[in-house]
Amino acid sequence: MLLGVLLAVVAQVEVTLGADQIDGPLVWHRLACLLILPALALRRVAPLGASAVAALGLAVEPLIGPAPVATPYLVLLFLLASLGWYATTRTGLIGVGLTLMGGLTYDLTASDFVLADLVVNVVIIVMAWAAGRLVRVSTDRRVRAEVEADRAARAAVSRERERIARDLHDSMAHALTLITLQAGGARERTDQPVAADALSSIEHTGREALADMHRFLDLLGPGGGEAPGVGDIPELVDGVRRGGLAVALDLDPGELPASLSTTVYRVVQEALTNVVKHSDAGSAQVVVHRREQEILAEVNDDGHARTARVNGSGRGLTGLTERLALFEGTLESGSTPCGWRVRARIPLAPDTT
């Protein structure tokens, strides 16, 4: 509003200084210049209305008489640029049309009509609006690009947090679970008080470490170095056997891409961890076979579900399902007449060797 008042005052000063060159009643020229106030006041909330008010002033001025006052025309260019910035393209074109109708009244009604002047005025009016519109479009495009870049960066951070959480669960949580259960089993079998106390301390510390890790995983969200693959499954099985579970291994996967190999390993690892944690199984069987254009990873056990001796997060099978979905694979988990089964099927690309 302050800008409108300032420019209206400048326009009145111009009318006063050029009074001897102005045709028609001076008061009407002063009133026409006062249209600057509502036009500038409306430029943001109603840019089309502002342009219409300015166009009215331009149309009235030739009827009153010509006046060498430049401020209203400069205000008009500013309003056209504002129309390009604040209004839509459709509204802007309507405003430009109204301005052309008002601004060209003098050129079309003058006795000494000059086509070149008409063309120049049309170009100036259209270019003022187009400049504002182009700046707005460019600014919007830049803002959208910045927003997309920020969104992509946040998504990348989220994916990395999920990857860290998943890898921690698949590796460290598995190892801590076995350590804790092995320490507990050894404590129950020993008759030496000193060893029993040490094993009890190991078991207690392992449980606390697992609880802390799951709290950290909750902060990171669901979810480096060389990742393990199917070639590491025998070592994984040996570790579970040392914990007291008899595991039979049937491994014939052929050559697999590194990412797929890691996924198969994680399936077996999670399934065996769940057997140790959540069932009273005495034996299990691990089968990893390539069947034509499919990899089958299956873990069967002969136990029944029981309350876990070590609390888990419940994110393991969900994480596996997400991993398998990346390869269009599926995961099945449920009871069988003899115990429990976890089965993953992963289709292979035709050119996978």
Written account of the structure:
It is a single chain. This protein has twelve helices and five strands. With about 350 residues, the protein is an alpha+beta fold. Strand 4 and strand 5 form a beta hairpin. Helix 4 (about 45-65) runs antiparallel to helix 5. The longest helix is centred in the middle third of the chain and has 75 residues, at about 115-190. The protein is rod-shaped and about 120 Å long.
Keywords:
rod-shaped; 353 residues; single chain
Secondary structure layout plus pairing:
Elements (H helix, E strand, L loop, with lengths): L1 H16 L8 H8 L2 H6 L5 H18 L6 H16 L2 H15 L1 H5 L5 H75 L3 H28 L12 H10 L3 E7 L5 H21 L4 E8 L3 E8 L14 H11 L3 E7 L2 E9 L6
Instruction: Indicate the overall shape.
Output: rod-shaped
In whole angstroms, the N-to-C terminal distance is 75 Å
Number of strands: 5
Oligomer: single chain
Rounded to the nearest angstrom, the radius of gyration is: 40 Å
What is the average of the pLDDT values?
76
Lateral strand order in the biggest sheet: 1-2-3-5-4
Provide the helix percentage: 55-70%
Please work out how many helical segments DSSP would assign.
Answer: 12
Contiguous low-pLDDT stretches (5 residues minimum) are 307-314
Structural class: alpha+beta
Largest sheet: 5 strands, mixed
Proportion of strand residues: 5-15%
Order of helices and strands: HHHHHHHHHHEHEEHEE
